[in-house]
Each structure stands twice: as C-alpha cells, then as structure tokens.
C-alpha cells in the first residue's frame, strides 16, 4: 500500500484536480495510516497537521481531518474514512439527480471541477454549447474543455477576461466550489467572483455546485485562507492567490446532494449537519 506520507505529499503538489479528489486522497492517506506499524495518537495528529497544510483553502480536507480526529482506535479511523469515501460516491450520484432539470442550453464555466464535469456530461443531450474560461494561472479550464470535447460536447475556450463578451449568449453559469463558508460564500478558482457578479447583474441563472463536505462549519469564507503559488510569466516571477471569494447573493441557487438550496446560512448549516449525520453514526 502507498504510504500515507506520499499520498499527502501528492495532494500538496496537485495543481489541477479539486476538492473532491483531494478529500478522497486524504481519506485514503488515513486508511494507509491504519496499516502503519507505528500507529499512535501522536502519529494520527502528525498526519492531520500535514493534511491541513497540504492545501489550506480546501475545506474538504478540513472535514476529513475533523472526522479522523474523532477516531479512538485504528479500527475506528478505518471505519470513518471508509464511510466518508462511501459518502463521496453517494453524494456524487445525488448531485447528478439534483441537477438534471436545471442544466440546459449554453453553459459558461471556469476551472476544472470534477462535479461540474459530471453534471455537464449527464446533461449533454440538453446542452447546446459549453463556454470554458481558460482559468489562468494554471489553465485548468483547458483540461476541462479537452475532456468535454472528447466526450462529445460542443465546447469553446476563451481567455478569462473575454467572459463579458460572451455572456449575452449564455443561459446558465455553472461553477464549482473548493470551499463554502458558513456564510454561504464560495471559495473557488480566481476569476469566479467577477464572472458570477456580472452574470448575476445581467439577470442570468448562476449556480454553484458542491457537496456538503466542502462546507466549513466554523469559518466564513473570508476567514478561509487563500492558497498562493508562484508563477513565471516570461522573465517575471509573480505570486498570486489561486482562489477568490464570491458572496452567496450572486447565486440563483446551490446544487448539492441535498437538492437545490437557497444561498443562505441556514440552508448551508442544515446541509452540513445532514452530511455529519450520514457519515458519523
């Protein structure tokens, strides 16, 4: 079995895949930890600290660590992590059901959310075109565009700041979420906030899609740190945050495994409680 340290390091180095993938890999790291001959409470806490440091902007990691810290034995840790992975798969299926009647026409999106990808493929018969923002820095949108095109969707990719030129032909803006604050504010790839702000201003339908394990039970999204990375542009080196923050008021609704939610503190809190009740029994 791959060592838990190498799995956490893989998450720390990852630059394309999002919160769902990170959460699954961290859960798998804790399962690997249960096979460590030196397993102890101290080693569990060391792994928890390394996991949180791997990507502080991903609340999904916070919630996996929160569950792991409830373990009183390696058997309980294995059971909690297996239960969380089962929840991941269950939630993905439920989200596809929740989105089935909401996604149609010409869609605009940003970055590479595996949940957004699955929704678009599930709804492909109702989609005329998908407009994907390039999503600099990192250009995750390029990976999404290629993926969707290979699966038969009509896709175009545009520079990030060209989104306003194309909004007139858009029926729906659909974005993922790397974290959700308790204030119903979304942390997602930088560029999400201006996109959703202008789409909302123009009266378009704007949806964020996420599973409840991406909700932070204690912090608003303005208290969630934004991960920064260094990039080279020609001969210039720059450091920039990879995420921005979008208030809930810019969204029509949230698509979750618990159905369509109003972007409110009450709805977000209820969804998080439902997540815990299903995983911790």
Would you mind describing this structure in some detail?
This protein is of the alpha/beta class. It is 44% helix and 20% strand. It has a seven-stranded mixed β-sheet with strand order 3-2-1-4-7-11-12, with helices on both faces. The longest helix has 26 residues. The model has no long low-confidence stretch (mean pLDDT 93).
How would you briefly describe this protein structure?
The chain is an alpha/beta fold and 281 residues long.
Count of individual beta strands: 12
Beta fraction: 15-25%
Number of helices: 10
- Taking the alpha carbons of the first and last residues, their distance comes to 28 Å
Specify the overall morphology.
globular
Radius of gyration: 19 Å
Summary tags:
single chain, 281 residues, alpha/beta, Four Helix Bundle (Hemerythrin (Met), subunit A), Rossmann fold, 2 domains, seven-stranded mixed β-sheet, three-stranded antiparallel β-sheet, 10 helices, globular
Secondary structure layout plus pairing:
Layout: H1 4-13, H2 19-33, H3 41-54, H4 59-68, H5 74-99, E1 105-110, H6 114-122, E2 127-133, H7 140-150, E3 155-158, H8 163-166, E4 172-175, E5 179-180, E6 186-189, H9 192-201, E7 205-209, E8 228-233, E9 236-241, E10 243-246, E11 253-256, E12 259-261, H10 265-279
Parallel strand pairs: 1-2, 1-4, 2-3, 4-7, 7-11
Antiparallel strand pairs: 5-6, 6-10, 8-9, 11-12
Helix pairs in contact: 1-2, 1-3, 2-4, 2-5, 3-4, 5-6
């Amino acid at each position: 079995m791959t060592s838990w340290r190498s799995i956490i390091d893989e998450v720390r180095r990852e630059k394309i895949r999002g919160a769902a993938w990170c959460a699954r890999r961290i859960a798998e790291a804790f399962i690997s930890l249960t096979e460590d001959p030196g397993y102890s409470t101290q080693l569990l806490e060391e792994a928890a600290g390394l996991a949180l440091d791997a990507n502080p902007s991903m609340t999904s990691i916070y919630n996996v660590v929160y569950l792991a810290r409830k373990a009183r034995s390696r058997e309980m840790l294995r059971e909690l992590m297996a239960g969380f992975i089962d929840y991941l798969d269950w939630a993905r299926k439920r989200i596809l059901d929740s989105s089935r009647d909401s996604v149609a026409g010409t869609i605009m999106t940003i970055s590479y959310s595996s949940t957004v990808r699955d929704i678009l493929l599930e709804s492909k018969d109702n989609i005329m075109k998908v407009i994907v923002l390039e999503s600099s820095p990192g250009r995750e949108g390029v990976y999404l565009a290629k993926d969707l095109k290979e699966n038969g969707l009509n896709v175009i990719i545009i520079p990030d700041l060209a989104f306003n030129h194309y909004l007139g032909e858009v029926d729906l803006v659909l974005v993922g979420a790397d974290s959700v604050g308790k204030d119903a504010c979304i942390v997602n790839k930088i560029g999400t906030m201006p996109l959703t702000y202008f789409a909302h201003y123009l009266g378009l339908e704007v949806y964020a899609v996420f599973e409840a394990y991406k909700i932070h039970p204690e912090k608003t999204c303005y208290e969630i740190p934004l991960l920064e990375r260094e990039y080279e542009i020609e001969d210039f080196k720059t450091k920039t945050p990879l995420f921005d923050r979008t208030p809930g008021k810019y969204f029509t609704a949230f698509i979750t495994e618990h159905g369509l939610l109003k972007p409110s503190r009450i709805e977000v809190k209820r969804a998080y409680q439902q997540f815990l009740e299903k995983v911790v029994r």
